[in-house]
Design brief:
- It is a single chain.
- This protein has 517 residues and is an alpha/beta fold.
- The chain has 19 helices and 15 strands.
- Helix 2 crosses helix 3, helix 15 crosses helix 16 and helix 16 runs parallel beside helix 18.
- The longest helix has 18 residues.
């Protein structure tokens, strides 16, 4: 019998007892219930709660002492080196093979015993309210993405406004301090201003050493960065992620809604564009208990943020390497190719995700940063001038091999190269191919790839045909010059009248008829 029906029955019993039969035995007989229930109804209008029956656990009962002994020992062990319920269940199977008990049964018992022993005391948290523009929380989290068909781990930066709920996310291959600071600047531009206080956990990019209480020895770069943008920092207690629960919840929401299923992208830039689109889409959602959507709250909060600095903080590490005999410069332990001559002194700027090579205020090379050691990062485009003089070096060159690995050398290039070698010989065919590659450097590689594919589709494998398809939009065609026709009306003449010619024709026909007579 459900609760509502039982309350109605109690009301009927009480009414019958007061205004009807008037005795417990008579009410029980008339309504067909037990006299115990009549006594309960007479005592109170609300039925008493039923006590759950205490079920015997014969299988677990044999292992309770073993489990209690483990838990008592865990009370003296370090917090992160205590038994889990699964580990206890596994030990029962190994050390007490005669006892067969389900893992769920062990889990329920361990959970109850830990509460009784005070090992899992529940804590009460106090809700917090933040003013507009007063605080944002920052965190790193990990995710997996498929980049050019390869599953890679990325480290994602997240900054969340505590008043409006808006958030910014950006991904990097490595969670370096440079990436950490650069992501701050992207976030400030996204929000249109700087929050007065940023809350962190004790990540290495910001904290060198944890001191007493809330005091921290911060890194010099973070102090300079904080001074440049004008915000304050605040750090959580160690192992207390709940103190920045806003960004912790944001990370889970964003990962479930925008990184599931695993994104498939061609580059890190494409992934960041995808994540930025996810941030924009989240501006349309309304957080429970908030009167505004996230986007509306961001517009209100924008008026309360600190203004952006006129210039960004200098994040790049600068060095001045010399180009070696292989056309490379050494930045830290890795070598990056350049189109410059050996012996040229350059300026190298090491950024969170890229390495830029500058010469006379011009960026002559830009590579994706390598976090390995003693690795060569080469671009075939930087060696085309040399290969024009040494075409035989193309086939076995390391830059070509790296282009193949990165997917920058399509299969159509190999087909065209093979055809050119069959027509002109190995040496001259390779030289023709190198000449076509210079067109890609000048007009764009997408344009050259499209021209090669179109030429092969037409069954033409001549270099001149590919060159024509690449430059066809730039061919100059002569056009006649326009001229004025307004002065030609003086040459106008009236149209001739043809009826006089008709008379002549008729007269000629009459004369011919007379001659025939």
């Amino acid at each position: 019998m459900d609760r509502r029906r039982k309350v109605e029955l109690f009301e009927q019993i009480r009414r019958e007892y007061r205004f009807g039969v008037g005795t417990i035995r008579g009410v029980a007989k008339k309504l067909g219930v037990h006299r115990r229930m009549v006594r309960q109804a007479v005592a109170g209008a609300i039925p008493p709660e039923r006590k759950p029956p205490a079920r015997a656990k014969p299988r677990l009962g044999q292992a309770t002492e073993f489990i209690d002994e483990i838990l008592r020992a865990d009370q003296r062990a370090p917090r992160k080196q205590r038994h889990t319920a699964h580990h206890i269940w596994a030990r029962i199977g190994q050390e007490l093979p005669e006892i067969t008990v389900a893992e769920s049964t062990v889990r329920h018992y361990v959970h109850r015993r830990k509460e009784e022993l005070g090992m899992t005391a529940r804590e009460t948290f106090v809700p917090q309210t933040c003013g507009w523009g007063s605080e944002a929380q920052v965190d790193w989290y990990e995710a997996f993405v498929e980049v050019m068909g390869e599953l890679r781990k990325v480290y994602c930066f997240a900054m969340r406004s505590m008043a409006g709920g808006g958030a910014f996310h950006r991904a990097y291959y490595h969670a370096t301090q440079q990436a950490f600071l650069e992501a701050h600047e992207f976030a400030f531009r996204y929000f249109g201003g700087v929050f007065r206080r940023l809350r962190y956990d004790n990540l290495k990019s910001a904290v060198k050493r944890i001191l007493r209480g809330h005091q921290r020895e911060e890194t010099e770069r973070l102090i300079a960065f904080r001074s440049h943008w004008g915000f304050e920092t605040e750090f959580c207690n160690p192992a207390r992620g709940n103190e920045k629960g806003g960004v912790e919840g944001e990370v889970g929401y964003f990962r479930r809604n925008h990184l599931v299923p695993v994104p498939r992208v061609e580059s890190l830039e494409e992934l960041n564009q995808l994540m930025l689109a996810g941030c924009r889409a989240d501006e349309q959602r309304r957080i429970a208990g908030k009167p505004h959507t996230v986007g509306q709250a961001m517009q209100i909060e924008h008026e309360h943020l600190l203004p952006l600095s006129a210039e960004g903080f200098e994040l790049a590490e600068t060095s001045f390497p010399v180009v070696d005999g292989k056309g490379c410069v050494k930045v830290r332990t890795n070598c990056y190719s350049t189109p410059l001559k050996p012996g040229t002194r350059t300026q190298a700027r090491l950024l969170p995700a890229y390495v830029e090579i500058w010469q006379e205020r011009e960026c002559v090379a830009r590579h994706e940063r390598s976090f390995s050691r003693y690795e060569q990062v080469l671009d075939l485009e930087h060696y085309l001038d040399v290969l024009e003089r040494k075409p035989g070096a193309l086939a076995g060159s390391s830059p070509l091999q790296q282009w193949r690995e990165r997917g920058r050398w399509p299969e159509s290039f190999d087909r065209l190269w093979q055809s050119l070698q069959e027509r002109h010989g190995r040496y001259e065919g390779t030289r023709e191919m190198i000449d076509l590659l210079t067109l890609g450097k000048r007009h764009g590689w997408d344009r050259l790839t499209k021209a090669v594919q179109e030429s092969l589709a037409l069954g033409c494998t001549d270099a001149a045909a590919v060159r024509h398809l690449v430059t066809t939009n730039e061919l100059v065609r002569s056009r006649p010059e326009p001229f004025e026709v307004s002065g030609l009306e003086r040459y106008d003449r009236p149209l001739p009248e043809m009826h006089e010619y008709d008379l002549l024709l008729n007269s000629g026909a009459v004369a011919g008829a007379e001659v025939a007579r």
